[in-house]
Amino acid sequence: MNRRELLRAAIGGGTGLALVGLHRACLAGANLDAIPDQTVLDADLRRVLSAIAECIIPETDTPGAITAGVPQFAELILSDWYTPEERQPVLDGMLALDDACFEKHGRGFAACSADEQAVALGAVQDSEMFKVLKSLVVNGYFTSELGATSQPGYDPMPGVYKEVVYDATTGRWS
Rounded CA gap, 137 and 110, in Å? Predict the structure, then answer.
């Protein structure tokens, strides 16, 4: 099962705004590892997105969101599969988060310490921006090969394989 098939199965029919763009991409059979056709994030917002992704799934004894390529995945979905109206609250939220960190700490969100980032994200955890990005980060991570295979208990073929052979001369399975 590839990323697209896994996401299509996971999303099902009931999606909120947090998954609407991802849902569209899966239904269209999009290449979810592609480079975005549109550019909607500048370098500063890319840094904010990467920092948010790493806050949500940090590098520990398993790879984090950045190593798994989650920021690129999230940017692709936001850029190519969200409408401008759906995307705007996310972009506005990222800018507001970055501005709040500049006001409080004298530096943007991506340049803040892990503790400062955690406090800043805690303050916006109920925002549309955070809900959308958290959903994209989690889905992007756990459907990436690196994210899925690095988890404890990963079993690419659960159960026991028992070979079954069809004998055409007898018409029986053994």
Answer: 16
